[in-house]
Backbone:
């Protein structure tokens, strides 16, 4: 009986290991550094968003042209379309940027006040005072635009903003629940939250820093209205 034939080795020749400078080069790790042009593009985009926020708040979305926005940042009239597909996309960017900034500022305010805001009333005061700063303080164009120009964005864009708004308002829930358990908040928490934000947000329509109260005084008055008593406002001011 014949022996089985030995298996033939593959005739393919394996490539020799690469040597020389190419082999010694290390593959870059992480994202490549942005070029000067890319950094400039990012800065220009931010400038467009901020300029658009100011103009949309002052003139309204419909009355503000892309040319107006381009002129405000020293661009040619068609240049904003390099960064945004349309004026509506720029409006959505203004609103989304406003909500993300508001979330960051709220988180920072609570962290800064944590050592001196031991109870729910003091925490609510911090939230109310910070919300007035978001609405009425320096660089406060973004949120008013979101509040009063939402009809001009698409349903999909609206859903993105609704998620950001929900994340922002959810932070208020623990303090409101605690005050409700204590009997200091005398209506259902969900209804109380809606009424509070409705009252606070309306301040962008009537507040005038040159004629009215300070933001601290506004926060104190809101707390007295929401849960009553001077104790809450004093504790909240100390925390803030």
Residues:
């Amino acid at each position: 009986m014949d022996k089985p034939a030995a298996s033939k080795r593959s005739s393919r020749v394996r490539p020799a290991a690469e040597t020389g400078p190419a082999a010694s080069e290390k593959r870059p790790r992480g994202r490549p550094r942005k070029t000067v042009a890319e950094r400039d593009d990012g800065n220009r985009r931010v400038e467009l968003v901020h300029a658009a926020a100011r103009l949309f708040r002052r003139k309204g979305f419909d009355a503000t042209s892309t040319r107006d926005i381009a002129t405000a940042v020293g661009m040619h009239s068609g240049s904003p379309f390099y960064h945004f597909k349309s004026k509506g996309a720029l409006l959505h960017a203004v609103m989304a940027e406003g909500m993300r900034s508001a979330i960051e500022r709220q988180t920072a305010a609570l962290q800064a006040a944590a050592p001196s805001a031991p109870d729910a009333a003091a925490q609510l005061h911090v939230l109310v005072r910070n919300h007035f700063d978001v609405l009425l303080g320096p660089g406060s164009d973004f949120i008013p635009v979101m509040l009063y120009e939402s009809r001009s964005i698409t349903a999909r864009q609206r859903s993105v903003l609704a998620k950001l708004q929900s994340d922002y308002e959810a932070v208020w829930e623990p303090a409101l629940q605690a005050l409700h358990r204590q009997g200091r908040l005398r209506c259902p928490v969900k209804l109380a939250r809606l009424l509070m934000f409705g009252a606070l947000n309306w301040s962008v329509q009537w507040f005038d820093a040159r004629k009215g109260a300070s933001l601290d005084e506004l926060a104190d008055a809101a707390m007295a209205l929401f849960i009553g008593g001077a104790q809450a406002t004093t504790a909240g001011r100390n925390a803030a």
